């Protein structure tokens, strides 16, 4: 269901919400005091194509709610390598979304391609404000080249250090997760350096899965 994450500069909270839960989407800004919302097409939705399509349709049908939200509205798409990605991009342009969190970003070429597709969709739909991209590298190559991802397009305004327990980077790099986090320290510091070195100031921390442990969230922050 609901997971928390943090934007680190300054410290703000973002809340993941499955995009197929219409009541949750429509009630998000009233029910939860988060600074922004990430409506999710990816991991909280089953890989069944019909379920992915239902999540997209549900969010599109909530476009009035998204336009009226007094918070940052983000969508986490499926990865660029998946069969769902192009439909995700088609769905989100013009419905009140501020930014896209793109998981499994691995190369500057992918970022440039996404930029060109979004530019086309925005032109076709007469959208003046371009969607921003939040870069979410999750494999070893992308994690080692965050500066290239961030420099590939002016749309990239934030980078994610996906350091949550059992997140993809843990499997890709091979460390053993601890609450103290020493095993993640170098990885996260490198993401900070890479992003800041090319002018990307916003840094997004990993997901906090245990929403009942707010003290643990504070310690992680």
Broad shape: globular
Number of helices: 10
Gyration radius from CA atoms, angstroms: 16 Å
Characterize the biggest β-sheet. Answer: 8 strands, mixed
Residue fraction in strands: 15-25%
Helix content: 40-55%
Please give the order of strands in the largest beta sheet: 1-2-3-4-5-6-7-8
Number of strands: 8
Overall average residue pLDDT = 92
Distance between the termini: 21 Å
Structural class: alpha/beta
Task: Please mark out the parts with pLDDT under 50 across 5 or more consecutive residues, or reply none.
Answer: none
Q: What is the succession of H and E elements?
A: EEHEHHEHEHEHHEHHEH
Describe the overall structure.
The protein is of the alpha/beta class. It is built from 10 helices and 8 strands. The chain has an 8-stranded mixed sheet with strand order 1-2-3-4-5-6-7-8. A hairpin with a 2-residue loop joins strand 1 and strand 2. The longest helix has 17 residues.
């Amino acid at each position: 269901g609901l997971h928390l994450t943090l934007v680190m500069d300054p410290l703000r909270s973002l809340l993941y919400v499955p995009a197929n839960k219409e009541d949750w989407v429509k009630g998000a800004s009233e029910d939860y005091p988060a600074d922004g919302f990430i409506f999710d097409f990816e991991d909280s939705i089953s890989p069944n194509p019909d379920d992915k399509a239902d999540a997209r349709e549900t969010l599109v049908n909530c476009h009035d709610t998204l336009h009226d939200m007094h918070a940052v509205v983000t969508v986490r798409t499926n990865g660029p390598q998946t069969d769902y990605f192009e439909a995700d991009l088609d769905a989100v342009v013009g419905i009140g979304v501020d930014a896209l969190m793109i998981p499994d970003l691995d190369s500057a070429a992918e970022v440039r391609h996404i930029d060109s597709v979004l530019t086309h969709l925005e032109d076709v739909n007469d959208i003046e404000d371009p969607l921003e991209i939040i870069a979410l590298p999750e494999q070893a190559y992308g994690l080692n080249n965050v500066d290239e991802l961030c420099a590939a397009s002016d749309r990239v305004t934030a980078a994610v250090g996906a350091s949550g327990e059992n997140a993809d980077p843990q499997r890709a790099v091979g460390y053993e997760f601890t609450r103290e986090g020493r095993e993640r320290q170098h990885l996260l510091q490198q993401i900070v350096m890479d992003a800041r070195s090319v002018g990307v100031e916003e840094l997004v921390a990993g997901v906090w899965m245990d929403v009942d442990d707010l003290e643990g969230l504070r310690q992680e922050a």
